[in-house]
Amino acid sequence: MENEVLEFDIGLGSGLPSTHPLHLTTSQNSAPTSTSAPRIYLPEGDLSDLEPYEGMEFESEEAAKAFYNSYARRVGFSTRVSSSRRSRRDGAIIQRQFVCAKEGFRNLNEKRTKDREIKRPRVITRVGCKASLSVKMQDSGKWVVSSFVKEHNHELVPPDQVHCLRSHRQISGPAKTLIDTLQAAGMGPRRIMSALIKEYGGISKVGFTEVDCRNYMRNNRQRSMEGDIQLLLDYLRQMHSENPDFFYALQEDDGQFTGNVLWADPRARANYSYFGDTVTFDTTYRSNRYRLPFAPFTGVNHHGQPVLFGCAFILNETEASFVWLFQTWLTAMSGHHPLSITTDHDAVIRLAIMQVFPETRHRFCKWHIFKKCQEKLSHVLLKHPTFEAEFHKCVNLTELIEEFESCWLSLVDRYELRDHEWLQTIYSDRRQWVPVYLRDAFFAEMSITQRSDSMNSYFDGYVNASTNLNHFFKLYEKAIESRNEKEVKADYDTMNTNPVLRTPSPMEKQASGLYTRKLFVRFQEELVGTLTFMASKAEDDGESITYQVSKFGEDHKAYHVKFNVLEMKATCSCQMFEFSGLLCRHVLTVFRVTNVLTLPSRYILKRWTRNAKSNVILEERPTDIYTGYLESHTVRYNTLRHEAFKFVEEGSKSLDTYNVAMGVLQEATSRVALAKKNEGRASNVDGRNNGDSARSGIRANYTSGDHLGISDQPLSEEDMDKKIQEL
């Protein structure tokens, strides 16, 4: 009996153009016929129920594959090519087997896995399913079904989930056109998928997932960048030829350029030698809002301004690529690891940093997480306008880990968000972005609650959504020139203008001559803040004294400062010095009550001083005679106090040692009184001159009339004499 040829277009899942007709040859006795040609997968009418059978013929191997895949889509499983057989005569494929994607079992190659740990094991998908379709090529050139196994040993996927199966996910031509248009407009994959779902009337009708959309956009961007990337390479080669200290590197894989590039100019490399203790790797520009896969390494200079440490273009965003990038950048920075690094909340970047910077403290940018919160919790913010403020307060204002944990649980319970997937994710990563867990690490930030200028991108205001590679170089150089000019201006202001002192403290005058202007102003705020705080002894172990520091009437909100008087070492429970490199008002309050009148050298970080970029080494003691006298007085006081503690401890052990100790103390008291009397006679030789000198010295260092207050009035003669007597 004659055969009839049926045609229908392959629209999805076959990898063929939609204009390629599928020729299905079938016997009139074996299956119903239809001449309809719908645009996707299945023919209309009775043929939509057709399933493969032995003896079914196809015009080509591709047609057989497409038919089995269309059948699989209707039934609810995914397909793949399993095996083939070639002709001994000419090597052409003469037999092909198509199987359910769950056929067989995973092959665990011991040679590949026994010597290395699998960090992210894939889920098990193969369960030994026997469902398959085998076809052979006939002498006529047609392909015939030689065997068909219908039964599966697993559950099949319902129609509304079929689009998630791998063999049925393909982006159609019209969908690609729409994606291209929306990507050019600056939309990201999530918003584009929302538009596609609305356009097609549901996710199942779109025919692919957000991951497919994201991958297509990435590949599309890579293709568009391939031509322009040569411009970047030419620019880098020219810069290196002009200055051999200009560093750049290209990532290659089996001799092929991957598209990843790193460079650092001589100034960036020098900046890292001064300020490379903390680094920000800014991946903002990788997002689809921008047309550049651009990521700069930045830091903070001695004025609190952003400073550049190098730049990268990242076309291939795999873990291996980021490992290469960080290792190469570290080579450019002479192999010196930073103390801390801040990045976006990204799992791939985290894995790379764990490999390259194992001892570096890694922090996720809190401000990026706050921004993501507006997207992930938009429905909550619309329903509960106060949620965002409470969320920020929970993160920023809690000062103890227990306080944060309690506040977080209370917040998610109050708004019924305990099971929210994104909140669970960021909570599990809380030790890498919530401030209370990070205060013991140095990040060069002056405030935990406010975003500093240094955290803003180095290229803000220069690179934006309309920037392409053709315009990038000019904007890149313009940004660097502008940042350098701002640093020069800050240097000039520091060196050529004097700050207004707000207290009579010798420590303030000392700091004004050491710190840059911006850092001095920040230190001054802390110093003035001590005027509202009191310190009281809480514990004394003989070597260190613990003080409770709080505002008047706020004992319930106290900070604890542990002070070793012999080593002049103080630590505060707020950990501001560890986090920012400047002493907090709580430690400064303890210094005030213990007569420490100048900053100990251990608390003056060179990176914050006006000499940060010079070879000048900070002296152990200030050269100023007046402040030198004050510090030496403090050192003498603390040294005697420490020795006295040991003397008292030994002298009180028995009655005999007590009597000896008391006798020695009485003799020492008489000798000290005699020494003071002789010193007073020597001082009177100079008469009035000494008083005048002291007054002029104090007038030079004190600008207010009360050492606990703030005033613009000069000291009176009476007040001046009082200050002399205090000293």
Structure report:
The protein has a seven-stranded antiparallel β-sheet, covered by helices on one side. It has a seven-stranded mixed β-sheet with strand order 8-9-12-11-10-13-14, sandwiched between helices. It has a four-stranded antiparallel β-sheet with strand order 15-16-17-18. α12 runs antiparallel to α13. The longest helix is centred in the first third of the chain and has 33 residues, at 210-242. The termini are far apart. With 727 residues, the protein is of the alpha+beta class. It has 23 helices and 18 strands. Mean pLDDT is 80; it is low at 1-47, 618-627, 687-717 and 719-727.
SSE order and pairing:
Blueprint: E1 3-9, E2 21-27, E3 57-58, H1 61-75, E4 79-86, E5 93-100, H2 110-113, E6 132-137, E7 143-149, H3 173-184, H4 189-200, H5 203-206, H6 210-242, E8 247-253, E9 256-264, H7 266-275, E10 278-281, E11 294-300, E12 306-313, H8 319-332, E13 340-343, H9 347-356, E14 361-364, H10 366-376, H11 378-383, H12 387-396, H13 401-414, H14 421-428, H15 469-496, H16 506-512, H17 517-529, E15 533-540, E16 544-551, E17 559-564, E18 569-572, H18 576-580, H19 585-593, H20 625-651, H21 655-684, H22 688-701, H23 717-726
Parallel strand pairs: 10-13, 13-14
Antiparallel strand pairs: 1-2, 2-3, 3-7, 4-5, 5-6, 6-7, 8-9, 9-12, 10-11, 11-12, 15-16, 16-17, 17-18
Helix pairs in contact: 3-6, 4-6, 8-9, 12-13, 17-19, 20-21, 22-23
